Amino acid sequence: MGKDVKALLEQMTLDEKIAQLLQLATFFYKGAAGEGEITGPMANMGIDEDVVTNTGSVLGASGAKEVQNIQKEHLAENRLGIPLLIMADIVHGFKTIFPVPLAIGCSWNMELAEKSAEIAAKEAAVSGIHVTFAPMVDLVRDPRWGRVMESTGEDPYLNSEFARAFVRGFQGEDLTNDLNRVAACVKHFAAYGAAEGGRDYNTVNMSERQLRESYLPAYKAALDEGCEMVMTAFNTVDGIPATGNKKLMKDLLRDEWGFDGVIISDWGAVKEQIFHGVAADEKECAQKSIEAGVDIEMMTSCYPKHLKELVESGEVNEETINESVLRILTLKEKLGLFENPYRGASEELEAEVILSEEHRKVSRELATKSCVLLKNENVLPLQKEQKIALIGPFASSGDIMGAWSWHGRQEDAVQLQAAFKTKMDASNLTIAQGSDIETITEEQIQEAVSAAEGADVIVLAVGERADMSGEAKCRADIRLPQAQLELIARMKELQKPIVTVLFNGRPLDLHGVIDRVDALLEAWYPGTEGGAAVADLLFGDANPSGKLTMSFPYSVGQVPVYYNHFNTGRPNRPDAPDHYVSKYLDIPNEPLLPFGYGLSYTSFTYSEMNLSSTTLTPSEEITASIQVTNSGEMAGEEIVQFYVRDIAGEIVRPLKELKGYKKVWLEPGETKEVSFTITEEALRYFHSNLEFTSDNGEFHAMIGPNSTELTLLSFRLEK
Question: Any idea which residues carry the catalytic annotation?
Answer without folding.
Answer: 266
